[in-house]
Each structure stands twice: as structure tokens, then as C-alpha cells.
Amino acid sequence: GQNIDQPTEMTATEGAIVQINCTYQTSGFNGLFWYQQHAGEAPTFLSYNVLDGLEEKGRFSSFLSRSKGYSYLLLKELQMKDSASYLCAVRGGGQNFVFGPGTRLSVLP
Amino acid sequence: NAGVTQTPKFRVLKTGQSMTLLCAQDMNHEYMYWYRQDPGMGLRLIHYSVGEGTTAKGEVPDGYNVSRLKKQNFLLGLESAAPSQTSVYFCASNRGQPNQPQHFGDGTRLSIL
Fold first, then answer.
1. pLDDT tens digits along B19-34
2. Which residue in A33, A66, B1, B37 has a CA-CA distance of 20 to 30 Å to A42?
3. Residues in A touching B45 (Cβ below 8 Å)
4. A101 and chain B: CB distance < 8 Å anywhere?
5. Does B42 contact A101 at a Cβ distance shorter than 8 Å?
6. Segment B70-75 long-range contacts (CB within 8 Å, at least 24 positions apart)
7. Which pLDDT score is estimated for B92?
8. A3 three-state secondary structure
9. What are the CA-CA distances from residue B63 to residues B22, B57, B83 (Å)?
10. Is the pLDDT of residue B5 over 70?
11. Cα separations (Å) of B88 from A56, B11, B51, B96?
12. Is residue A8 less than 8 Å (CB to CB) from chain B?
């Protein structure tokens, strides 16, 4: 079967660093995506990993270990506007995209 | 620069009624998708299309039909709405290459009474 796990909720303080984990078991692997989704809005693309290692984009970084079926999204210098849900999605074979349930992050002042 | 546009944004239906959700994209993307999002379950793929005139089933296709008569439009139909189809529906599109992210519309909030 196909399964993606993420923590349901996380809380962090403004200015801090938070790591959101994602573990996956899918048939086929053609990359892992992270999306941000504010309440009541559409998901927006944050990062893409297909090779093992760390991809850095400003305050956001994403890591992938294909052998462990594991990824994390690292958010630095947290801001109030980072309060949102973060979705992990794996592209399997063809157009098979499998999304995790999402992690709701609350950033407190 | 509209991107992906979904209509309507909100709708309330009675059980047994039918309706069509429209998705339009202006990015010349080949691939289009329909998802539903329910609390605690993440986005689940209903149907998708890899080009004009083609459609394929996703993870949860039962009770839905789709059509892609024009490259820029992807329609999702509910023939006989059921309360279990109450959800938020998202349309997405992308170029299809493995590293290309999906671009999402703002969603349609559908309630079936």
C-alpha cells in the first residue's frame, strides 16, 4: 500500500527553528514535494527533493533520505505568517501523487 | 495572471442533485487533476488528465465523472450527490515533468445536505 505519515500538529515560538518530519511508503518514487497551505486557501509549492540530501531556499530547507523513506522540512527564523499546514507529497509512478495528512503549525509570539 | 481558476467557490446541494465543477488554467499545462480534501485525510486524487481528450481514475473516483474537451479546462461532475461527497475540492495543473510542482486553484467548498 501507499502511506505517508506526518505529525498532526506542532507549536513553535516566533524566531525559533522547527522541523516537520514526513515518512513515506509508496510504490515508485519520482520525488517528494512540500507545500504550504494557509487555512481556507490553496496549497502553494515550497520545495522538491529527488536526490538524497538537503535543499535550501531562504528560511526553508528540505531534506530527503530515500533509503529511509524520510524527509523533513526545516523552517528557520519563524514568523507569525508561517502559521499554516505543511503538506508532504510523494510522486510515485506516472501521475500518482500521494499526499500526507498535513502538519498544522502554530507560531506563537 | 490568473493561474488556476475554479468555479463556483461555494455550493450547497441536496442529496441526489447533480452539478459540475469547472477548472480553468491559463499556463498551457498538459496535466490537470481533481482532488478532494477532508479533515485529517489530506488531499486525495479523484481523477486526472494527461492531455486534451484523456482522463484517468485516481484513488477515489467513485461517484464522479470528468471531461477534458479543451486543454485549458477540466470538469468534475457529480451525477447524484451524496452527503459523503461533502468536501473541499481542489483542481491542480502542471507540466508533467517529474520535478514540476502542481499549481492549485482556490478550491470549491461543497456541502451536500
1. 999 999 999 999 999 9
2. A66
3. 96-97
4. yes
5. yes
6. B71/B28, B71/B30, B72/B24, B72/B25, B72/B26, B72/B28, B73/B22, B73/B23, B73/B24, B74/B23, B74/B25, B74/B32, B74/B33, B74/B34, B74/B49, B75/B20, B75/B21, B75/B22, B75/B23
7. 97
8. strand
9. 17, 11, 11
10. yes
11. 32, 10, 24, 24
12. yes
Kindly indicate the confidence band of residue A94, based on its pLDDT and cuts at 50, 70 and 90. confident
Could you tell me which residues are beta bridge partners of residue B110? B11, B87
Asked if B39 has any chain A CB less than 8 Å from its own CB, the reply is no
CB contact under 8 A, B99 and A48: yes
CA distance B82 to A102: 26
d(Cα A39, Cα A105) in Å, to the nearest integer?
11
Give the number of beta-carbon pairs within 8 Å between A and B: 51
CA nearest to A30 within chain B: B98
